Amino acid sequence: MMRKIKILFLLMTATLAMSAQEKLFTLEDLNFGGNNYRNLQPENMWLTWWGDLLVQTDVEECNLIDIKTGKKKLLFTLDDINKWADSNEEENSYVRHLMNATFPYADKPLVLVGNKKAVLLVDFKKHVIVWQDSISKKQANDWNKVSKATAYVEDYQLFVVDANGKKHQLSTDGSRSVVYGSAVHRNEFGINKGTFWSPDGQRLAFYRMDQSMVTDYPQVDIFPREATYEPDKYPMAGMTSHQVTVGVYDLKTENTVYLQAGDPTDRYFTNIAWSPDGKVVYLFELNRDQNDCRLVSYNATTGERMAELYRETSEKYVEPQHPIVFLPWDATKFIMQSQRDGYNHLYLYNNKGELLKQLTKGQWVVEDVLGFNKKIKSIIIASNEKNAIQRNIYCVDIKTGKRTPLDNARGSHRGELSESGQYLVDRYTEPDVPRNIDVISVSSDLVASKVTRLLTSKDPWEGYQQPIFESGTIKAADGKTDLYYRMVKPHDFDATKKYPTVVYVYGGPHAHNVEAAWHWYSRTWETYMAQKGYVLFILDNRGSENRGLEFEQATFHQLGQIEMQDQMKGVEYLKSLPFVDAKRLGVHGWSFGGFMTISLMLNYPDVFKVGVAGGPVIDWKWYEVMYGERYMGTPQNNPEGYAKSSLIDKAKNLKGKLQIITGYNDNTVVPQHCLSFLDACIKAGTQPDFFAYPGEEHNMRGHASVHLHERITQYFEDYLK
């Protein structure tokens, strides 16, 4: 009897061990809208700098971290903050977590936190509130730590509240048609906000966008009993665009001046920056063709134009993405980023507009400027110098241009500098490393820089059936350019079998899909599909980012054409693999990737059996002015390019099964694209499938994303497998 029990126990143990090893993923695990998604993300730490002191901000407490040892010391708890602030949970004055706490003053024990009613500046040594500002009904809050003034938008009007609580109204004509203090030019050219404080917080530069002349796109809210009209201002390529001006408000004089930049018609103003003394405003000015870019300075007191410091032109386009940045130790010199030599690099100028030197150079790009180390007079950057799909951090000596690597020379690194630049939080991943976090000392003796490990994340997918992730290169259609790919295979991959294969594609500017990060930067949906027995293939074609101007601009005035040629080289490679079933090829992408998906389905109708296109551009004449005209010109001056890239007259070519998905209220790729294509298919007698998400915009939010990816998956299950 005991022997039978023992055998039964061993069988149960083996079964449990097998089931643990064979645990399967669900979309609730893998999709960001899923209810178990957070539990399957690599462990992380919320960190912020207090000058050169490092603080871990968590839900319930803030801890000071010893940079040399990694040991923690409690600063205060959430209960402490609410006690000192005399919070009342019923009145929404309760601070609910400390994860977003910041420490704006290096020499003062002050923490900035918020509740639903106000922003609070708390002295955690004296246990008192030293300043607070109501955030009720405000949008686009922009607080300056020096003056403690806050700029915000309320009911379309722009306001400033100073440190004493006095409210200054900067506009009176704000409306849906005249927008103040918000991002303009549809967030192109690196624009993500509309207010810009001078360093001392005494002057505020702001955008004013008059879009009264822009045609309304007729969006509809279907959820009320009677659907309501909620139009968007949407300037389409070749049509009338909005007009932007830049104002400057002076807190001391309570006076506003506008920069005397001339007629704003068909011009773009971007990358606003201030001189260190707050007396001069700098911005890049761009013509509508986006091939003539000028850096111009303006007197912040009078608005008068002072000088043109730099000009860059191109036969294709110039795309300023970054404001100039002055050296912290020399107010007469600044760093400018430009692709003038074919790759994004750093240039040192003086405030007269004289080029002093090119600081970085080579067939690689500077991806980010993290800040400066004032002590050793260096700039800290992230670049892909080591490898096109890596991202590593370097210290660049301003005087000599010498670059010193700060990280382990592998993987993908994101850094956060301390205030002086002497310390760096290095968050990084590698293809087989979920996440590590180090603190690096950026000392004068860089070779001897010390590293302290704060976190080594375990594999959160341990115990699950994990697919096989691989990466490699193939040649582009030009026969010479290396293109990077990722391949995802089922966990029990058998090279003697034939697998249905899905090409996931984006392919457009300002994005890439392959990186030397965890799982080669794989999207979790690929894991879900591999678990179901598919091979996934992802290729970064010419036209995608971080490979230099020639690589990016190969698609100029003919979007989709070069990209398709490169993607078909990927297909050619797939067909050479014995385990890929060439009769069961699918393709999927979203946005530009949706455009690419349908383009491939219609231009190569005998290659792809199934496609799922989300939020697809169908004809670039219905896309926005700034992005569309940069890459395609206008329908008037590039009719051949627009005709070649349009999918309307190719609707007749559809052979395979194609599902088109869109947000019903998409304000990026407006529904006109999908609906016009459906009309073309009706006229051509072809039969795509269509699904819309009511109330959703360009990307599905929350749990709707789980539903979306189940729908995408099911379509391939129904028609490809």
**Biggest sheet: strands, sense, closure?**
8 strands, mixed
Shape descriptor reads globular
Please report the distance between the alpha carbons of the first and last residues.
49 Å
CA radius of gyration is 27 Å
Give the helix level as a range of percent: 10-25%
* Alpha-beta content class: alpha+beta
- Oligomeric state as shown: single chain
Tell me the strand percentage band.
25-35%
Q: Using DSSP, what is the number of strands?
A: 44
Strand order of the largest sheet: 37-38-40-39-41-42-43-44
Can you count the helices? Answer: 11
Mean pLDDT: 95
Low-confidence stretches: 1-20
Q: Describe it for me?
A:
This protein has 721 residues and is α+β, with helices and mostly antiparallel strands. Helices cover 16% and strands 35% of the residues. The protein contains 11 helices and 44 strands. Strands 37-38-40-39-41-42-43-44 form an 8-stranded mixed beta sheet, sandwiched between helices. Strands 12, 13, 14, 19 and 20 form a 5-stranded antiparallel beta sheet that branches. Strands 1-2-3-4 form a 4-stranded antiparallel beta sheet.
Lay out the secondary structure:
Elements: H1 2-21, H2 27-30, E1 47-50, E2 53-57, E3 61-65, E4 72-77, H3 78-84, E5 110-114, E6 118-123, E7 128-134, E8 139-143, E9 150-154, E10 157-161, E11 167-169, E12 178-180, E13 195-197, E14 203-210, E15 216-217, E16 220-221, E17 228-229, E18 232-233, E19 243-250, E20 255-258, E21 267-274, E22 280-287, E23 292-299, E24 305-313, E25 325-327, E26 330-338, E27 345-350, E28 355-358, E29 366-373, E30 378-383, E31 392-397, E32 403-405, E33 412-417, E34 423-430, E35 433-441, E36 451-456, E37 468-475, E38 482-489, E39 499-504, H4 524-531, E40 535-539, H5 549-553, H6 561-575, E41 580-590, H7 592-603, E42 610-614, H8 625-632, H9 639-645, E43 657-663, H10 672-684, E44 689-693, H11 704-719
Parallel strand pairs: 39-40, 39-41, 41-42, 42-43, 43-44
Antiparallel strand pairs: 1-2, 2-3, 3-4, 5-6, 6-7, 8-9, 9-10, 10-11, 12-14, 13-14, 14-19, 15-18, 16-17, 19-20, 21-22, 22-23, 23-24, 25-26, 26-27, 27-28, 29-30, 30-31, 31-32, 33-34, 34-35, 35-36, 37-38, 38-40
